[in-house]
């Protein structure tokens, strides 16, 4: 049961913000945080996400913004993000695709490919006929909105830059050891489980879905759940590929979901840098968990350095208005801290 809880917590973190990787002793430079917990007053707790600008060091080139994102948030958060992204020359955005296809396929290609799968389609409109999505259902249960339903991707400057499900499965199969005879596993078992959790077809996914239905009925439960998410994302430290209590195939999955996709993204970014003028700007619009690794790649491979940053509030909780006592808030913090400490590297 403990392992199942850790897997579900890890899957939820991956689904909402990616997974953080931090510099080890051998890394050339430490990256900056892209998430933080803010307390503008004694009753308010906020989850803030960074947009960080990088400029070339000693050579010409356009500005690059690492535009981190939380996949569920308040409408005002996504309106601010939309204004920011629309002002960029090019936006390279995240979105694992059902089918392999050439990079930078237009939104219509993504939508037609996703129509036959359980993956959400990038769209500014809520589709009542869309299949179950854990992220979308969670957002509604929390009184928030889902990124793919709040951001309008149908922009000329928006270019998809991600791997397909098939490509990830092939990478997993090539890198992970083969399962022992008579045992489930192999390269794709953890990835398949993650997809099933997100579409609600596993026991854990079904249990999570039922919990969301109860949570939506209570404003206080909504607030407690939002506080838990703020605490979980805010406490996420270390390299999750080394986190404790998680099977090795899940550790390998996290490496692929972060590092292989980031490598693919860097190749696309390099191609775009050769196309746009030095007066332009590129935004990398990915989950916050990708940004530590991307920043290291950006500084080491492309010789860019941080120059400016903006912090946006993804969502917040008013403890007093929600009826959460200081004691209840502390119990929630201690509970999340206990779970996250079990996942941290030694």
Q: Overview of this structure, please?
A:
Helix content is 46%, strand content 17%. With 346 residues, the protein is an alpha/beta fold. The protein has one domain. Strand 1 and strand 2 form a beta hairpin. The longest helix has 26 residues, at 248-273.
Q: What is the strand content?
A: 15-25%
SSE string, helices as H and strands as E: HEEEEHEHHEHEHHHHHEHEHH
Rounded mean pLDDT is 77
Number of helices: 13
How many beta-strand segments?
9
Low-confidence segments: 1-9, 19-28, 104-128
Helix content: 40-55%
Biggest pleated sheet: 7 strands, mixed
Structural class: alpha/beta
Gyration radius, rounded:
20 Å
Query: What characteristic shape results from the CA principal axes?
Result: globular
- The count of domains is 1
User: Span between N and C termini?
Assistant: 22 Å
Question: What keywords describe this structure?
Answer:
346 residues, alpha/beta, seven-stranded mixed sheet, disordered N terminus
Write the layout of secondary structure elements.
Layout: H1 2-17, E1 35-41, E2 44-56, E3 63-69, E4 72-73, H2 75-86, E5 90-93, H3 107-114, H4 134-141, E6 145-146, H5 147-150, E7 158-160, H6 165-175, H7 189-199, H8 203-215, H9 219-235, H10 248-273, E8 281-287, H11 291-301, E9 304-318, H12 319-322, H13 326-343
Parallel strand pairs: 3-8, 5-7, 5-8
Antiparallel strand pairs: 1-2, 2-3, 2-9, 4-6
Helix pairs in contact: 4-8, 6-10, 7-8, 9-13, 10-11
